[in-house]
Design brief:
Elements (H helix, E strand, L loop, with lengths): L14 H14 L5 E9 L18 H10 L7 H17 L3 H16 L12 H6 L2 E3 L2 E2 L8 E9 L1 H6 L7 E10 L3 H4 L3 H4 L2 H15 L8 E3 L5 H10 L8 H6 L10 E2 L4 H5 L3 H17 L12 E8 L3 E9 L9 H6 L9
Parallel strand pairs: 6-7, 6-8
Antiparallel strand pairs: 1-4, 2-3, 5-9, 8-9
Helix pairs in contact: 1-13, 3-10, 4-10, 9-10
Length: 349
């Protein structure tokens, strides 16, 4: 109704971030000064991806065949088998256990209690998570994202447009954004972790740290794609939040939550907040913008300055985005709240 250009984007679970990526490119290319990225999803009941390709080949058929070379596939939904087998591979190689997955899920459910927009607002013990219904391999129901409906949006502006509208105190800057896709290694090597995207995550993360000059240790808050607890575990290493094979130690030390090295998924992540596929990337963006503005309420990460986003779609594309406050010399009305919020947040959640 406005006559403006509209682009439809579909990139599996990384659709929302792909829309954000395109909007950023349009502004940087000088084609517009203000762009709106919108993502939404109304999901059918049942497991992710079930029943969508009954009349045609699935774009993930090759990935599934590769997974079948390494694991005995069952007559179950494919997605938990992908990520369950990736988790099992990490356990065999590095000694992590089902307890580590349960700790991740417990952390995300605790974080979700503080998010009024979360789909799940109940706290669960590690024991409750381990004893919930077994889905596949090491994964239980409470370690999996739920079926979700939802929407998200982000307004992107050029620096001149921000100044023209007097929004310097609200602006959050995208200082780096990298998209990567599947590498040849997923079909050349025998690795379930590579099939679900560990290589492309590592590639995008490496590029973003190199181009921004920001080190992983400087990141304060992360929203990453925890469609299953096992994916959060292996993504710690891909994003260089810890060394390869050190995810178990990272989890046990509480370095993934308040009081630790970096707060991962303060929103509750996909496990608690929900995963409406097309909206997820923009919901992650919104959470990190609120964190950097000091507007995240009781889930506020103290003194958050650098934020990192990871949004992944199997089959395969990943978008890794880094944010900071746009105008560092402009004081927000929420700075005091950001500095003092530590009093309201336990040192370890």
């Amino acid at each position: 109704m406005t006559g403006i250009p509209i682009y439809n984007v579909n990139n599996n679970c990384s659709t929302g971030s792909t829309a954000l990526f395109l909007a950023k490119q349009l502004i940087e290319g000088g084609l517009c000064d203000i762009a709106l990225a919108v993502g939404f999803e109304k999901m059918a009941p049942g497991p992710l991806g079930a029943g969508h390709f009954n009349d045609r080949a699935s774009p993930l058929d090759k990935h599934l065949a590769k997974m079948g070379e390494m694991a005995e596939l069952q007559n179950l939904p494919h997605t938990p088998q992908y990520f369950g087998n990736a988790g099992l591979e990490h356990m065999r190689k590095y000694g992590t256990t089902e307890l580590h997955l349960a700790k991740i899920a417990a952390k995300n459910h605790r974080h979700g209690v503080r998010n009024p927009r979360a789909q799940s607002k109940r706290e669960y013990t590690v024991e409750e998570i381990l004893n919930s219904r077994r889905i596949y391999g090491p994964l239980t129901k409470l370690e999996c994202c739920p079926t979700s409906d939802g929407a998200g949006a982000a307004v992107l502006m050029s620096e001149d447009a921000v100044k023209a509208h007097g929004l310097q105190d609200r602006a959050v800057e995208i200082i780096g954004m990298e998209m990567a896709t599947d590498t040849p290694a997923i079909f050349q090597e025998k690795s379930c972790m590579k099939v679900v995207g560990t290589d492309m995550t590592a590639l995008a993360a490496s590029r973003i740290y190199q181009k921004t000059g920001v080190s992983p240790k400087e990141v304060d808050v992360v929203e990453l794609h925890d469609c299953f607890a096992s994916n959060e575990m292996i993504t710690y290493e891909g994003l260089q939040l810890c060394g390869v094979g050190e995810a178990g130690k990272f989890i046990d030390a509480g370095d993934n939550t308040y009081g630790g090295q970096v707060v991962v998924n303060p929103s509750g992540g996909l496990i608690a907040k929900g995963h409406p596929l097309g909206a997820t990337g923009l919901a992650q963006c919104a959470e990190l913008v609120w964190q950097l503005r000091g507007e995240a309420g009781t889930r506020q990460v103290p003194r958050a300055r650098i934020a990192l986003q990871h949004n992944l779609g199997v089959g395969g594309a990943v978008v890794v985005t880094m944010y900071k406050k746009g105008f560092q010399n402009i004081t927000s009305n929420n700075v005091a709240a950001t500095e003092n919020i530590k009093e309201n947040v336990p040192s370890k959640l």
